[in-house]
Amino acid sequence: MYITLDGVSRQYGDIWAVDRVNMGIGQSEFVSLLGPSGSGKTTLLRIIAGLEKPTTGRVLIDGVDVTDLPPHRRGVAMVFQEFLLFPHRTVYENLAFPLRMLKLPKAEIEERVAWVVGILSLAGLEKRYPNQLSGGQQQRVALGRGLVGRPKALLLDEPLANLDRELRQEMEVEIRRHQIALGIPFIYVTHNQEEALSMSDRIAVVRRGRIEDFAPRTQIYDTPRTAFIAQFVGRSNRFEGTLDGAGMLASDCGARLAVPAAGLAAGSRAMLFVKNEKLRLDPAGATPAGANSLACTVKDVILRGAYADYILAFGNRELNASRPRSERAFLAGEAVTASFDAADMDLFDADGERPS
Amino acid sequence: MKPHESHSAAAQAAAPASSSVDRRQALKTLAAGALATVTAPYIRPASAAPTQLRALMWEGYLLPDVIAGFEEKYKVKFAPTFFDGNSEAYNKLRVGGTKDFDLVQADGFWPSLYFREKLIRTVDYAKMPSTQHLFPVFKPDQYKLLTDEKTGVQFGVPFCWGSYGTTYNADQVPAEKAASIEVLFDPEFGGRLSTSARFEENIALTGILVASRMGTIDKPRPDGKSFNPYVLTDAELDGVEKLLIEQKKLLLTRYQDNATLEQLLASGAVVAAPEFAQVYRLLLAKKAKGEIDTTFAHTLVPKEGGLGWVDTWLVSSGVPDGAGLDVCQSFIDLMTAPETMKKIALASGCSTTIDIRSLSTPEEQKLYLMDRTGELSKMYMFDQPSSTEKWERVWSRMQAA
Amino acid sequence: MKGRWSGPLLLGVPTAFLLALFVLPLVSMVVLSFWRTENYHIVQDWNLGNYLTLATEGAYVTFLVRSLVMASLVSVICVVIAWPVSYAIILYGGRYRLLFTLAFAVPFLTGEVLRVIALQGLLGPLGLINGVLMALGAAPLRFIMYTNVASAIGLVYLYLPIVVTVIYLSLLNFDARLIDAAKIFGASPARAFFEITWPLNLFGTLIGFALCFIPCLSATLAPRFLGGPNGTLYGMAMAQQFGESGTWALGAAMGVVLFLTSILAVLAVCLKVDLRRTGFTGFGRG
Hints:
The structure holds three protein chains of three kinds.
Chain A: E1 3-12, E2 15-25, E3 30-34, H1 41-49, E4 56-61, E5 64-65, E6 76-79, H2 91-101, H3 106-119, H4 135-148, E7 153-157, H5 165-182, E8 186-190, H6 193-199, E9 202-207, E10 210-216, H7 217-222, H8 227-232, E11 236-243, E12 248-251, E13 256-258, E14 269-275, E15 280-283, E16 292-303, E17 307-314, E18 317-324, E19 335-340, E20 345-349
Chain B: H1 3-20, H2 23-39, E1 52-57, H3 64-74, E2 77-82, H4 86-100, E3 103-107, H5 110-116, E4 157-163, E5 165-169, H6 175-178, E6 193-196, H7 199-214, H8 234-248, E7 251-255, H9 258-267, E8 272-275, H10 278-288, E9 296-299, E10 307-315, H11 323-335, H12 338-348, E11 351-352, H13 362-367, E12 380-381, H14 388-400
Parallel strand pairs in B: 1-2, 1-3, 6-7, 10-12
Antiparallel strand pairs in B: 3-10, 4-10, 4-11, 5-8, 5-9
Helix pairs in contact in B: 1-2, 7-8, 8-14, 9-10
Chain C: H1 6-33, E1 36-38, E2 41-43, H2 49-56, H3 58-92, H4 97-109, H5 112-123, H6 128-135, H7 148-173, H8 177-184, H9 189-200, H10 202-217, H11 221-226, H12 234-243, H13 248-272
Antiparallel strand pairs in C: 1-2
Helix pairs in contact in C: 1-13, 2-3, 2-13, 3-7, 3-10, 4-7, 7-10, 8-9, 10-13, 12-13
């Protein structure tokens, strides 16, 4: 592996902000560290950067143990959430900064800055100061400053959090394109699952300083390894209840649901997640498509463009379904049958683990 | 405007307003009252009994317990402001100070200057019985500097007196050397001399030396009067400047206050310095207590001549006849009472103009020169420099040299 | 009240304030400087005599040069001391930061006179330093007794708290994560300091410098109590004109010269320093 984290932990007072993390990241891999705020993902990134020292464990980059190296000797670059452009330097000088630190000849600096100005469409802004730029322009300069030194890895700490949605989606595509073009690992910290899903090769879900799972993005989304991931990634309906001997779950909300065969004993508590888009809707009375069916009433319809979100009343609780607009539309107040297959469910034991 | 009157007027107006409950009237009264309250401290009444007695004085004469008793008896607050030199006090008075101060202190010729310029007013010795205890040389018939030549009325009361003699470390400086002003310019004592920071006395004292060296001290003077070290010719001033510049190398520092000089002398860092004999007396008291064992002596009048001063209490011209003047005179009377003067002598180390021999031991009588008041006539009284501009230039050139 | 008039009214307050407390005294000083005095009397005839005296009489030029050298030295020393002190408070002060800052303000609560006199006690022939030296059998330090060195020590002591406070505030306002950014992009800690921390706090440092330099230029007390016979500085000489010799007009002219010198010094610094290069936008951070 190109970057290896070997049993990395970081303690602050009594709290383990990063707890025994082992990770291997390949060259030219795009990895996201996804987790809620305070989960330790930024600390982990700062440990890789060298801005924090791990309490225990080692960090290896390109085969070299860099655990004790200060940040400026690690050869990695970083893009910060607040951009952190040098306010007293022009765009050109900000971009040239890493190259000057590398003591490159002036001609090469000019050439490389010109290259980065070109790929990030910053032409004409070179003489401006950061506070004379829009948020998107600042973000591009920050990204350019990260790329210009051809680092061994680029670390991105929620770089898009301060941008508006449209700009963010544009930048997601662009960042991914540059990563592919440069062929270096990008390690991308975010709490936004959409960003993680849209760009990453693999996603590491971070929770309470630990890596909950580190897997290809489809796997993280389609077969979450823990209840936490199922809850955190994608939008799901959650059922809790007790298993009976017949492979059925008696949910606390009053549904009886057929569950996939699993190594869970009868009478044990279990959690079950069904993604919103797996919940199919049919008019009440029609034969439901899935094995499990629940009689609901449409409470509200939220139009999302290509699809519609339905808020359904089932007994005392709400369920959420997301259906393409190409399907039959339902109106608020309509009685519907929501159904899904056992295969579309993710079942977890009371500890939130997937039963083996 | 007489704000205290307006203040009471507002108070009177407030009474009917509160009974008639006329809102507008009440508001008006309130506003007037507030205005009067705000302005009252800044504008003084012309005739009302004062609530404050403001003095511009030397700090060394402050006796907190005596003043507390006075405040208690006359129901006034005593508010002193201190100054370091006559010209500073004079400056303060000239720029509106007569409205800011009731009592003023000055010495030598300065009171007559103040009176000519209407900065101070006449006083009545009959209202101040303590003046009967003045030594004969300070009574108005002998001491002319506090009496208006035209009317014969007094405008000040003598308080303490002294010289600007040389206090020296008798273990280090022989008496015959200390008897001359030359000692302050003697390279033998280089780095161990000190003078005050006051430009007038430094120049005047050096002026006496220069004039006696040049022989101009007993020659006819350009102004036809006898020699006055505060009226120096340009040639003499040139000599003073040269001498002061030479002296600079020999000085450890120019002391800013008596406490500093006392420390410097007591520690032996300084062996001779001109001063008002106050430090000298403090040092003798210390020696008597066994705190130091160096012997100090004081040359009252150097052989070339010396400077002398009589501190006086004056009443500012801003004080009108009546209650205001009465309080001022009562204060002066208290301060010049023999019992108070005894305390002042001990606290400040000054000789008194009031005869307190009956209250003093023979040693005190000697120490405070109570039998030597006659020597005052041999001294040149503190005065205003003939040209402060010229003197200032001499002083600045010396400082920059 | 609201709307049309509130703006001018609100701006009127600082304007009136400036007029009453700054412009009027300055104007009266300028007027006085073109008059003359004669034995404690102001003579109101317009003349340039005071300025002529200041220009031709070497003494006053000497005072000014002495003061300029003294103020520059003291300000540089203060900045050099204040930087590590403020930096240490920021880095290691933790939750006691505020306490440290307040502690630095404590000397302001006592008067300047008191502080100078305390220092006189410390540096004088009987002072703590020489007392200890002599008790140890060593010779007393002549150069700290009533010399310009003593004045300089006094001035550093008087104005260091201001400089520390100003630089501390500048550092507090400074986004220290920019240092992280610099390090990530290859700057060693020392390089990061000179590339980022120093330039971005240069403006604050200059304010600290000026807040030390300008009062040092007009210092009166420290040279008077500590400076000794050769320690007369411009401010002290100027104070003599007002306090003792009654040569107010000359003193006023000295004041005008001092004011112009201060302005020139500040202007020179402003012209030398490109505020943009200190990250200063004039509109706060961002």
